[in-house]
C-alpha cells in the first residue's frame, strides 16, 4: 500500500474515533515512525502530507536527517544515549523518551533552545519496557526545574504487547491520570499538556483515552 493510501485510512480512523468520544481530531498529531523504512519511503510520507517523522536511534535519525532535513519535524522516540545527545539535539523537534536525570542534564548542556520533552513512563509493569515507574514521575519532574532548556510538554508510554484490550486501555488511562496530577502542580517548566501514546495496533484506544500524539510505524509507512 502507498503511504498516501495508508494515511487516508488512518486519518479516517482518527476522525471516527474522535467522533465516538467527542474529541476534536485536530487535537491528535500523527507521527510517522520511519525507523524500519528507507529514505524513499520517508519521503513518500512527506509527499503524502505528513509533517512529523519519528526515529528511535540516533544513527538512523542522522542518516535520514541528512537526506530529508527540515522538510519534516523530527521526533526522537527511542532510548537516547547521553553521548549521542550532542549529535542530534539541535535537529529534533521533540524528545519523547526522557527517562533519566543524566539525559536531562546532557540535553540542557548541549543546546541553547528550549527542547519540548515527554517523560517516558512504564505503565505496563513489564520489565522490558523503558521509562520511569509511575510513582517516580512527580519527583523526577520537580527535579528538572534547574534545567532551563527543558520543557516537559507531556508524558509518553508504550502499552503492553497483549491482545487484552482492557490491559492496554488501563495502561493509557493511568498515563492520563498521572498527566492530570502533574498539571495540578502548575510548574512553569512542566505544563505537561500532552500524551504521546498509541501505535499501529492500539492508536484508537489511545485516542479514546486522550492521546495527543500517536506514533505509527508499520500501519502507516510499513510495507504491510
Ligand atoms: C517502533 C515504535 C513505534 C511504532 O510502532 P508500530 O507498531 O510499527 O506502529 C512507536 N513508538 C515507539 C517508541 C517505537 O519504538
Task: Walk me through this protein's architecture.
With 224 residues, the chain is an alpha/beta fold. It has a single domain, classed as TIM Barrel (Alpha-Beta Barrel). Helix content is 40%, strand content 17%. The protein is built from nine helices and eight strands. The model has no long low-confidence stretch (mean pLDDT 96). Residues 33, 35, 56, 77-78, 158, 199-200, 215-219 line the site of pyridoxal-5'-phosphate. Pyridoxal-5'-phosphate (PLP) is lined by residues 33, 35, 56, 77-78, 158, 199-200, 215-219.
Characterize this entry briefly.
The chain is an alpha/beta fold and 224 residues long.
Task: Please render the helix and strand layout as text.
Layout: H1 3-21, E1 29-33, H2 39-47, E2 52-55, H3 58-68, E3 73-76, H4 85-88, E4 94-98, H5 101-110, E5 115-120, H6 137-142, E6 150-156, H7 165-184, E7 194-196, H8 203-208, E8 213-216, H9 218-221
Residues 33, 35, 56, 77-78, 158, 199-200, 215-219 line the site of pyridoxal-5'-phosphate.
Amino acid at each position: 500500500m502507498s503511504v498516501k493510501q495508508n494515511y487516508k485510512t488512518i486519518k479516517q480512523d482518527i476522525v471516527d474515533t474522535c467522533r465516538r468520544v467527542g474529541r476534536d481530531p485536530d487535537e491528535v498529531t500523527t507521527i510517522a515512525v520511519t525507523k524500519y523504512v528507507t529514505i524513499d519511503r520517508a519521503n513518500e510520507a512527506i509527499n503524502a502530507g505528513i509533517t512529523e517523522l519519528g526515529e528511535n536511534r540516533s544513527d538512523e535519525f542522522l542518516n535520514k536527517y541528512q537526506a530529508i532535513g527540515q522538510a519534516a519535524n523530527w521526533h526522537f522516540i527511542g532510548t537516547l544515549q547521553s553521548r549521542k545527545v550532542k549529535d542530534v539535539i539541535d535537529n529534533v523537534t521533540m524528545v519523547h523518551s526522557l527517562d533519566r536525570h543524566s539525559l536531562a542534564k546532557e540535553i540542557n548542556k548541549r543546546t541553547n533552545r528550549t527542547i519540548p520533552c515527554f517523560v517516558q513512563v512504564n505503565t505496563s509493569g513489564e520489565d522490558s519496557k523503558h521509562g520511569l515507574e509511575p510513582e517516580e514521575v512527580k519527583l523526577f519532574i520537580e527535579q528538572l526545574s534547574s534545567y532551563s532548556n527543558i520543557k516537559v510538554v507531556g508524558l509518553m508510554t508504550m502499552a503492553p504487547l497483549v491482545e487484552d484490550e482492557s490491559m492496554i486501555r488501563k495502561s493509557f488511562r493511568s498515563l492520563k491520570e498521572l498527566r492530570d496530577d502533574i498539571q495540578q502542580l502548575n510548574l512553569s517548566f512542566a505544563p505537561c499538556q500532552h500524551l504521546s501514546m498509541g501505535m499501529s495496533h492500539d492508536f484508537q484506544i489511545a485516542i479514546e483515552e486522550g492521546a495527543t500524539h500517536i506514533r505509527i510505524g508499520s500501519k502507516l509507512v510499513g510495507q504491510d
